[in-house]
Specification:
Radius of gyration: 20 Å
Order of helices and strands: HHEEHHEEHHEHEHEHEHEE
Number of helices: 10
Strand order of the largest sheet: 6-5-7-8-9-10
Shape: globular
CATH class of the largest domain: Alpha Beta
Helix content: 25-40%
Distance between the termini: 41 Å
CATH topology of the largest domain: Rossmann fold
Structural class: alpha/beta
Strand content: 15-25%
């Protein structure tokens, strides 16, 4: 969808040796790699581990572009190790494979992609320990089972509780403003008739936190703080 914005820059990108990959059928100009064709032609069989396994877990896995609060967005390096650690995110906040996670955050940021999608993949089975505190453990002791993830293309405060009831949502991943949008909605019948038990995210103001729980019921809230380019994450377990 965004290729038209990149196309005028192709000559300068080629001069700088920058490869351009596009997910879509094309056609595209020479020098642009159409990923869909390669995906369609790829075998379903995994290559041997020595082909795809990183030589060093601290090597770069991907780049996440930060929001650019001090200028243009900047590419933050994310290692293979940090990506793997994101598998434990939902396990650390008390979710399990029985949960249904509601995700309406952009997937080009770390919260939506690595913590949200990858976190759902890594959730352990109830009572089997999951990934809690076991980075580097014997893989045979890890029991990921995965949780159901409900992806919403765009957050809608007016549709949120209807979505939760329709999809059986039990966990909500937010940024603080999303909870404020919900609190600012006009009151309507059935706001407390839902299965949501856990909300986890960043940037929730104390006044919105209190209003959210008073209005929508005893939803447990776990506030976290971290950065794509940082190496420390904080969890508020106590509320």
């Amino acid at each position: 969808d965004l290729f038209g914005s990149v196309e005028p820059l192709l000559p300068s990108l080629r001069e700088d040796g920058v490869a351009v990959w596009v997910l879509g059928a094309g056609p595209y100009p020479p020098g642009v790699v159409a990923l869909q064709e390669l995906l369609d032609a790829a075998s379903e069989e995994l290559e041997p581990e020595d082909v795809w396994e990183p030589e060093d877990m601290n090597d770069t896995c991907l780049y996440i572009f930060t929001s650019g609060t001090t200028g243009l967005p900047k590419a933050a390096r994310v290692s293979h190790l940090k990506s793997i650690m994101c598998l434990s995110f939902y396990d650390l906040v008390g979710a399990s494979s029985q949960d249904v996670v509601y995700l309406a955050l952009p997937l080009y940021h770390m919260a939506g992609s690595l913590l949200g999608i990858v976190g759902c993949l890594g959730i352990g089975e109830p009572g089997r320990g999951g990934f809690r505190g076991r980075f580097g453990a014997d893989p045979s002791t890890l029991h990921p089972a995965g949780a159901t993830c409900v992806l919403k293309e765009k957050f809608s405060a007016s549709q949120f509780w209807d979505d939760c009831r329709a999809e059986g949502v039990t966990v909500f991943q937010y940024i603080g403003e999303l909870c404020r949008y919900l609190v600012n909605q006009p009151q309507r019948p059935g706001e407390r008739q839902h299965g949501l038990r856990l909300a986890v995210g960043s940037g929730l103001r104390p006044d919105v936190w209190r209003s959210f729980q008073q209005r929508f019921g005893p939803v447990r809230i776990v506030e976290t703080y971290g950065m794509s380019e940082g190496n420390v994450t904080l969890f508020n377990y106590t509320g």
